[in-house]
Design goal:
The protein is α/β, with parallel strands linked by helices and 348 residues long. It has a single domain, classed as 2-enoyl-CoA Hydratase, Chain A, domain 1. The protein is 46% helix and 11% strand. 48% of the residues are buried.
Length: 348
Amino acid sequence: MSEESEVLVRRQGAAGIIVLNRPKALNALTQTMVREMDRALKAWERDPAVTRIVVKGAGERAFCAGGDIRALHDLGKAGRQAEALAFWREEYILNRYIKRYPKPYVALIDGIVMGGGVGVSLHGSHRVAGDRIGFAMPEVGIGFFPDVGATYALPRLPFRAGSYLALTGQRIGRADALALGIATHGVASVDFPAVEAGLIAGDDIDTLLKAHESVIEPSPLVAHKDIIERAFGGSSVRAILTALDAEALASEFARAAAATMRTKSPLSMAIALEQMRRGSALTFEEAMTMEMRIVTRVAAGHEFYEGVRALIIDKDQKPAWRPASVDGVDPVEVATYFAPLPDDLIFA
């Protein structure tokens, strides 16, 4: 496979190694990358010489900053939603495959990890966070929703931190990722090559990672867990904002969270909150089926295209959300995003 390929796949020692190889695009996922990962993982599942998978991003800026949102936007605007939905379907199937993969799956995560990058790391057995990790699910800021398994994973985080991350899109670092269980190990970035070498050599994975774990500072988010638990337990986005506003005089954290939420798509936040409400009771497969229902409606709607236009294409930072405020969100409309599809079964 050429070094110019979007994803580099190689077998080295005991490891099957996958390198997300679009550093100029922050390793954003394309359909080609999803298919190459799926193909490699299936081959290595059958290969007894491969005892672990290693996934990393090229360059130092990002593990993977998400899906190729601009390409998906352009497909939808050109009336080719079916092609965009085919990408999401294949991506979600890959997410499920990683979740159920029978061999250790070690994601070496340094730099930005968002959206689709979360989907190809969070569901693996070992998530190793480097110094520069910046984890976020910022989808409500572009009129989208936290997908790639976030419906399952975020509601299971402690003290309603999943709802906080889903509705604010806030980026967190290594200490928070470890405290929430998003990452399983924290390793200094300079030690990543040594960890990879040990994985290739066939060293015991847990022993190897423990030997390289670095001292981690306290979690900033945990310091605000009481506010998060109180506010983000609200039954609606409006209730959450009201609770944050009540804390704002005494808490800069609450004030900042409320201000951030007021820049996001009101409809997307309502959808995300409903995901958090439903997701805690779902299996992974049920959660991914729900996400396929939601994305099918999002691809036919307004918010995603307007969000990408305002934040990524024109960069005027002035999206015209519909509705413009949380008070205009219709719960009946929100419910339509979760309704079953004729072809609901996306897993064989």
